[in-house]
Design a protein that fits this description.
By secondary structure, this protein is α+β, with helices and mostly antiparallel strands. It contains 2 helices and 4 strands. The strands form 2 sheets. Strands 1-4 form a two-stranded antiparallel sheet. The longest helix has 5 residues. It starts with a strand and ends with a strand.
Length: about 60
Amino acid sequence: MSKPVINKEKCTNCGMCILVCPQNVFGKENGSVVVKKPDECIGCGACEMQCPEQAIKLE
């Protein structure tokens, strides 16, 4: 199954991925967006499609 990977150089920590992910895979730690539950990702691609900075890729 695909897992989301965040490109930290592109990510602005806007939190859009947190809002659109139906599985609550993302969260924030110390103000930065992180992949908290990668094993719960269903590969829907919502995070990848909605990221305004194109900082998320499913791998």
